[in-house]
Write a structure and sequence with these properties.
By secondary structure, this protein is an alpha/beta fold. It contains eight helices and eleven strands. The strands form two sheets. Strands 7-6-5-4-3-2-1-8-9 form a nine-stranded mixed beta sheet, sandwiched between helices. Strands 10-11 form a two-stranded antiparallel sheet. The longest helix has 17 residues. The structure holds zinc ion (2 copies). One zinc ion binds next to loops.
């Protein structure tokens, strides 16, 4: 069985604090066999990670956390960024056209950016879209207190159940993991499609520590300091870096009420 964390952010996300090399180092240190890099409306970190993955004994799924009009959506196994600001249905159609599949992250709560149960369930009546939306994230470390609802409500839904860290700081990588038969990215995809994944939750009471630590690290990022892994022998260290290359316009998507 393999272990994957399929919801990870790099510095290509405006709100994250770990370089691509830092993400790979931490993921391999905690024993993951596959990760998905899912930056907000950006795929450059995922490409960089895929390029470097073999040095870290990992496989990388290229993904994007797309800002749809109806909430966030993880697009996986894609090579292009799906446009942001479309409806869930339109975005799923687009991801299907790119040959990818999707997972609903941190759904069924009132947080901004979360897909509603109505939106997710409506996909089940649309065969073409049902083949694209394959998973539902039932553990997300950053929305820990809100996850119980989705765990109960998703019990009988025919989606793969996943866990992800949604890590925006390096040490959180692997705090939510998805177990699957096999060890490769292709086998992870098959398992998502067959709904045979097993989600493993984070430790208890991690969220408060995470939020305080993220606040400190995002302030450091604004000053130009991020978590990086510079050489094969080194551990992950806070390094000063010119971050202009990561900049994209922050997604401003009007949510449909
Ligand atoms: Zn999100
Ligand atoms: Zn996320």
């Amino acid at each position: 069985m393999g272990l994957a964390d399929i919801h990870i952010h790099t510095i290509y996300s405006y709100d994250a604090t770990t370089t691509v090399r830092g993400v790979l180092k931490q993921a391999s240190s905690v024993g993951l066999s596959v990760i998905a890099v899912t930056d907000h409306d950006d795929i450059r970190g995922a490409f960089d990670a895929r390029e470097l993955a073999s040095q870290y004994n990992l496989e990388v799924v290229t993904g994007v956390e797309v800002s749809t009009r109806d909430g966030h959506l993880l697009a996986l196994f894609i090579d292009k960024i799906p446009p942001r600001g479309l409806s869930l249905d339109e975005t799923l159609k687009h991801i299907g056209g790119l040959g990818g599949i999707a997972v609903a992250p941190h759904p069924f709560n009132q947080l901004p950016g979360s897909l509603s149960m109505d939106h997710v369930i409506s996909v089940l009546n649309k065969p073409a879209l049902k083949n694209v939306l394959r998973g539902i994230e039932v553990y997300n470390m950053t929305t820990q207190p809100f996850d119980e609802k989705v765990q109960i409500q998703s019990t009988y839904l025919p989606f793969a159940k996943t866990a992800g860290s949604d890590a925006h700081v390096y040490w959180a990588i692997g705090t939510g993991t998805t177990e699957f038969p096999g060890t490769t990215a292709a086998e992870l995809r098959t398992s998502l499609q067959n709904a045979t994944t097993i989600p493993h939750p984070y430790e208890e009471d991690l969220m408060r520590k995470y939020i305080f630590n993220w606040l400190r690290r995002i302030t450091m990022r604004r000053l130009g300091y991020v978590s990086d892994h510079a050489t094969a022998e080194a551990a992950i260290h806070t390094q000063r870096m010119d971050l202009r290359f990561t900049r994209t316009k922050r997604a401003k998507v009007k949510r449909k009420k």
